[in-house]
UniProtKB/TrEMBL annotation:
EC number of the protein: 4.2.1.10
This protein's name: 3-dehydroquinate dehydratase
InterPro entries: DHquinase_II, DHquinase_II_CS, DHquinase_II_sf
Provenance organism: Paragemmobacter aquarius
UniProt key word Kinase: no
Reaction equations catalysed: 3-dehydroquinate = 3-dehydroshikimate + H2O
Binding site for substrate: 73, 79, 86, 100-101, 110
PANTHER family (alphabetical): CATABOLIC 3-DEHYDROQUINASE
UniProt-annotated catalytic positions: 22, 99
Transition state stabilizer, annotated site positions: 17
Its biological purpose: Catalyzes a trans-dehydration via an enolate intermediate.
PROSITE patterns according to UniProt: DEHYDROQUINASE_II
Gene: aroQ
Length: 144
């Protein structure tokens, strides 16, 4: 079963928006790096992005029974979405949360995450390398 890698709003502009915070790599670059690493690790990945909260909720529902684990960068919904938390709570496998930037060094409203109430682990401030680190950890979690 594949690992779902889900990305929230504005991450389609990765590499273009606020590169001083998020870097110059695009989301396509990240998707490619994930698929190369996944192959190395013997994992399948399904890499998805949406600007819509409901689309993310629908993918999390689809992950029930279909995905071995979920890696999610919920972007701004991290700090607002009870709906995404509830959907993740209905998923049976491991969940890892990724933030490209160090949210704890930023505005106070970024310090709280609803998703962290569900995530086995959180990576923040490792840039886009955070996705690769999360994938390695996911390999361990799904191999148990
Ligand atoms: C983010 C951090 C969030 O606070 C922000 O809203 C994002 C991206 C990150 O990857 O650093 O859009 O999740």
């Amino acid at each position: 079963k594949p690992v779902f890698v889900l990305n929230g709003p504005n991450l389609n502009l990765l590499g273009l928006r606020q590169p001083e915070i998020y870097g110059r790599e695009t989301l396509d670059d990240v998707a490619e790096a994930c698929s190369t690493l996944a192959e190395e690790l013997g994992l399948a990945v399904r890499f998805l992005q949406s600007n819509h909260e409901g689309a993310l909720v629908d993918w999390i529902h689809q992950a029930r029974g279909e995905a071995s684990g979920i890696i999610i960068n919920p972007a701004a919904y991290t700090h607002t979405s009870v709906a995404i938390l509830d959907a993740l709570n209905a998923f049976e496998g491991p969940v890892l949360e990724v933030h490209i930037s160090n949210v704890h060094r930023r505005e106070a409203f970024r310090h709280h995450s609803y998703v962290s109430l569900r995530a086995e682990g959180v990576i923040a401030g490792f840039g886009t390398e955070g996705y690769a680190l999360a994938l390695r950890r996911m390999k361990t979690l799904v191999s148990k």
